[in-house]
Design goal:
The protein is an alpha+beta fold. It has one domain. It contains two helices and nine strands. The protein has helices at 70-79, 113-123; strands spanning 3-19, 22-25, 35-40, 50-52, 59-64, 89-95, 98-104, 129-132, 135-139. Strands 1-3-6-7-5 form a five-stranded mixed beta barrel. Strand 8 (129-132) and strand 9 form a beta hairpin. The radius of gyration is 15 Å and the shape is globular.
């Protein structure tokens, strides 16, 4: 089973992360070249455990739970007929002391969240789709 979240949100390039009682610089990309981005709420607030350079315009972000790879998440999105809906770019998102895999769209694709919600609604049981159309989790 793969768990993932779909949200209308903002992202920002991660510059520093709070660990061991102080802020530390963060590599802007992981070893595979994937950008490290922080989730930023629509009101521009974010966790104080990290610092971001700026917040993007609202866009669509899909991210897995801890331990789900980009490959596993993409395969799940393809199976649910979500992958082809938009051009997704891989990102890494801070989570606890580690990172979780995710994908983001461009701001002009944020409206596709309705289509993604409908695809999920049609293919999985009601109890495995939790939340509203702007922020929901899927258990598949």
């Amino acid at each position: 089973m793969v768990e993932f979240t779909v949200a209308k949100t903002k992202v920002g390039p991660l510059t520093e992360r709070y660990q061991n009682g102080e802020y530390h610089s963060v590599d802007k990309r992981n070893n595979e070249g994937v950008k490290r981005m922080a989730l930023v709420k629509l009101d521009n607030s974010h966790s104080k455990d990290y610092k971001v350079a700026y917040a993007s315009d609202p866009l669509l972000v899909i991210h897995g739970r801890s331990g789900v790879t980009h490959t596993e998440l993409r395969a799940t999105l393809e199976d649910l007929e979500i992958w082809s809906v938009a051009n997704f770019t891989p990102i890494e998102i801070p989570h606890g002391a580690g990172w979780i895999s995710g994908f983001k769209t461009t701001p002009d694709r944020v409206h596709l969240i309705d289509r993604i919600y409908t695809n999920c609604e049609q293919q999985i049981s009601e109890q495995d789709l939790i939340g509203d159309k702007e922020n929901f989790s899927v258990y598949y």
